[in-house]
Design a protein that fits this description.
The chain is α/β, with parallel strands linked by helices and about 600 residues long. It folds into three domains: about 180 residues, 3-Layer(aba) Sandwich (Rossmann fold); about 180 residues, ANL, N-terminal domain (Rossmann fold, 3-Layer(aba) Sandwich); about 130 residues, 2-Layer Sandwich (GMP Synthetase, Chain A, domain 3), CATH 3.30.300. The protein has 21 helices and 26 strands.
C-alpha cells in the first residue's frame, strides 16, 4: 500500500527504471538527464552518508538552496532515512535561518552556494546546534565542518556496508513527519508547519481525481522547492512518472521556456501580471494595423473560452475565426511558454480576472486555485471540464470546507496539518474541533466553487467605521499598465491612500509623447502632470466603488517592494506591516 512518499518512490523507480525522471543544467548550461535507477541510487547514497555522519531517524535536517537536482535528491534521501526535511528559502535572511535552526535544533544542513555556506558557518561560530554542512557547489576550503556533496556521497560507498532503501521500507509510517515548512511570515514570527507523509499521499490521490498529469508530461520547476506548492507538485510528478526540469535562477524562466518546452508549470499570479504587462508593452510599439489584428485575435479567444470553460463545442463560425486567430496571433503568444503548455497550476495570491482571462484566451489553461501550507497546498482549483472565473475553483474531493464567523474559510480533512512545530498554543488557536481556521474571508457559491475575498487581518476599518478590502482595491488599480506594485493603506485613518511603484519606463514614454520634461527619474515621479494623469486613470477604475472604498491620495515610490528590503515575503506576497513601518513618514504625510 502506497502510504509513504518513499514507498511510492520505490514503486515508481521499479516501474520506470531507465526512463528519464529529472532534467538539469550543468555549468555550461547544457541539459543533462537523470533516470529513475540513477535517482534511486543517489537517494540511497544520501541515506547511507547521513547514517555515516550519525544522523538518526526523526532528526530534522535542513536544505538551504535554490532549486537544483541535488535539492530533490537530498529531499528523498533524508526521508528515506526517516528524517524530517526542513527547507529554507534560498533568499532567507540570516535572522530567518538562525531562528529556524535554533527552533528545530538541526545538526546537519545542506547548502547550495558559497553565500549560503557563509551564513551557516557564521551561525556555527556563534555556537549553533549545527555540526555538519554539506555544500552542493564545489568546495576547496579546509574547514572540517564543511564537505562538498560529491565527497559526502562517497563516504559510504562500500557495498558491504551499504543499506538499501528497501531495508528501511518496513519501518516507514504514514504518520511520521515528512517535513517542517516555515511560513514566510507576512505578520509576526514564522511558524513551522508540520506535514506528515499521509498528508502528501492523500493529496496525491485527490489531485489524481482532479488533474490530468501523465508519465508523458514535462514540468518546469520554477517556484522555490522550499514552498509547499512546488514541493507537493514535484513529488506529485514523481507519483505520476512525469519529468521535472530544474531551474536554478527563476529570472531565466522566459529564456528557458522555449528550450524546455514544458507541458506543465506551477506559478504564481505575479508571474502572469508581469508577463501580461510585458506583452502589452511590446504591443504598444507595433503598427496600428498589427495591434488591431492582435486585439481581434484575443477577442476571438475570449469568445472561445466562454464555451470551453463549460466543455461546450465551439459553433462552426467561431471555429473558423478561432483557427485564423490561432495562426495570426494566439499560437505565437503560446510559443513564449514553449508552445506545448497544457496547464499551469497557479496559486499563492489573488489574481486579476482580466489577466486570467487573457491567458485563457491565448489557449493556456491557467488552473487557478486556493491553498495554504497548513492544508498541504490545494483546497480548491479549476476543473478542466468546467471552471468559473472570479472563483478559486471547485473544492477538492474529500476536502471539507465551511464558512465560519466573519466569513472565515474553515478546512477539514486528511490534507490538514497536525500542528505548528513546538507551538501548541498557536496550533490550538487555528485548529478547533478538527477545523483549520485559515484566517481568510470567503464564501462557497452554488456550484461548490470557493471564492476567497481577503485576509481577515488585512481588512481595514477607517476611522469613520467603514470596512475596506485592500486586496480588492490593489487588484483593481493594479491592472493599470502604469502600476508595477501597489499597497493600499487606510486602517484607522480617515480615508484610503496608496503607495504605488510605477512603471518608470512607461511613464518616460508618456512624458516624451506629451511634452512633459524631466531631468531624472526622481523629477519625473514628482511631476504634477504625471500625478494628474494617474489620478484620472484611477478615477476611471474606481468609478463604481462607494466613496469610502476609493483611494483618495497616493505617493509614487522610486524603488520596488522586494524580498531583500523585507517588504515582500519569499513567496512574493506583500508584507503590509513591514511596508507601513518602512514608509510611515510618507504615509503620514498623505494625511496632513
Amino acid at each position: 500500500m502506497e502510504n509513504h512518499i518513499i514507498r511510492m518512490f520505490l514503486n515508481r523507480a521499479e516501474k520506470y527504471g531507465t526512463r528519464e525522471v529529472f532534467r538539469y543544467r550543468n555549468n555550461k548550461k547544457s541539459y543533462l538527464s537523470l533516470n529513475w535507477d540513477e535517482l534511486k541510487r543517489k537517494a540511497e547514497n544520501v541515506l547511507n552518508s547521513l547514517r555515516y555522519i550519525g544522523s538518526v531517524k526523526y532528526e530534522n535536517v535542513g536544505i538551504y538552496s535554490s532549486n537544483r537536482l541535488e535539492w530533490m535528491v537530498t529531499d528523498l534521501g533524508i526521508m528515506a532515512n526517516q528524517g524530517v526535511v526542513v527547507p529554507f528559502y534560498s533568499t532567507a535572511s540570516r535572522e530567518q535561518v538562525k531562528y529556524i535552526v535554533e527552533e528545530t535544533g538541526m545538526k546537519a544542513m545542506f547548502v547550495g552556494s558559497r553565500e549560503q555556506l557563509e551564513v551557516a558557518l557564521s551561525l556555527m561560530d556563534e555556537g549553533s546546534t549545527l555540526k555538519k554542512l554539506i555544500i552542493f557547489d564545489n568546495y576547496s576550503g579546509d574547514d572540517d565542518r564543511v564537505i562538498d556533496f560529491q565527497t559526502f556521497l562517497k563516504q559510504s560507498s562500500e557495498e558491504n556496508t551499504r543499506i538499501k532503501i528497501e531495508d528501511v521500507e518496513p519501518d516507514y509510517n504514514p504518520d511520521d513527519l515528512a517535513t517542517i515548512i516555515y511560513t514566510s511570515g507576512t505578520t509576526g514570527e514564522p511558524k513551522g508547519v508540520m506535514l506528515k507523509h499521509d498528508n502528501f499521499m492523500y493529496c496525491f490521490d485527490i489531485h489524481e481525481q482532479r488533474l490530468n498529469v501523465t508519465d508523458k508530461d514535462v514540468s518546469l520547476c520554477f517556484l522555490p522547492l522550499s514552498h509547499v506548492f512546488e514541493r507537493l507538485w514535484s513529488h506529485y510528478l514523481l507519483h505520476c512518472g512525469a519529468v521535472n526540469v530544474f531551474l536554478e535562477n527563476p529570472r531565466e524562466v522566459i529564456e528557458v521556456l522555449p528550450v524546455v518546452k514544458p507541458t506543465l508549470m506551477c506559478t504564481v499570479p505575479r508571474f502572469f501580471d508581469k508577463t501580461y504587462h510585458g506583452i502589452h508593452t511590446e504591443l504598444s510599439k507595433w503598427p496600428s494595423f498589427k495591434q488591431k489584428i492582435f486585439r481581434w485575435s484575443i477577442s476571438v479567444g475570449h469568445q472561445a473560452i466562454e464555451y470551453r470553460c463549460r466543455s461546450r463545442e465551439l459553433p462552426f463560425s467561431l471555429k473558423i475565426k478561432h483557427s485564423f486567430a490561432n495562426i495570426l496571433v494566439l499560437r505565437k503568444l503560446r510559443s513564449i511558454f514553449g508552445g506545448n503548455i497544457k496547464a499551469m497550476p497557479c496559486s499563492g495570491a489573488a489574481i486579476n480576472t482580466d489577466v486570467l482571462k487573457f491567458f485563457h484566451a491565448m489557449g493556456i489553461f491557467v488552473n487557478y486555485g486556493y491553498g495554504l501550507t497548513e492544508t498541504t497546498a490545494t483546497v480548491s482549483c479549476f476543473k478542466s471540464e468546467e471552471y468559473f472565473f472570479g472563483t478559486c475553483g471547485t473544492i477538492m474531493p474529500g476536502v471539507k470546507v465551511k464558512i465560519g464567523e466573519q466569513g472565515e474559510i474553515l478546512v477539514k480533512g486528511r490534507s490538514v496539518f497536525p500542528g505548528y512545530y513546538k507551538k501548541e498554543e498557536s496550533t490550538n488557536e487555528v485548529i478547533k474541533d478538527g477545523w483549520f481556521h485559515t484566517g481568510d474571508e470567503g464564501y462557497i457559491d452554488n456550484k461548490n466553487n470557493l471564492v476567497m475575498l481577503d485576509r481577515i487581518k488585512d481588512l481595514m476599518k477607517t476611522s469613520v467605521g467603514k470596512f475596506v478590502s485592500p486586496q480588492k482595491l490593489e487588484l483593481l488599480l493594479g491592472q493599470d499598465e502604469l502600476v508595477e506594485q501597489i499597497v493600499v493603506v487606510g486602517d484607522n485613518r480617515q480615508f484610503v491612500t496608496a503607495l504605488v511603484v510605477p512603471s518608470v519606463e512607461k511613464l518616460k514614454s508618456i512624458a516624451s509623447n506629451t511634452g512633459i520634461t524631466f531631468r531624472d527619474d526622481e523629477e519625473l515621479l514628482k511631476s504634477e502632470k504625471i500625478k494628474v494623469l494617474i489620478e484620472n486613470r484611477f478615477a476611471r477604475l474606481q468609478k463604481d466603488l462607494t466613496p469610502h472604498e476609493r483611494v483618495v491620495k497616493f505617493t509614487l515610490l522610486p524603488e520596488p517592494f522586494t524580498i531583500e528590503a523585507g517588504t515582500m515575503t519569499n513567496t512574493l506576497k506583500l508584507r503590509r506591516r513591514a511596508i507601513e513601518k518602512t514608509y510611515k513618514q510618507i504615509i503620514d504625510n498623505m494625511y496632513v
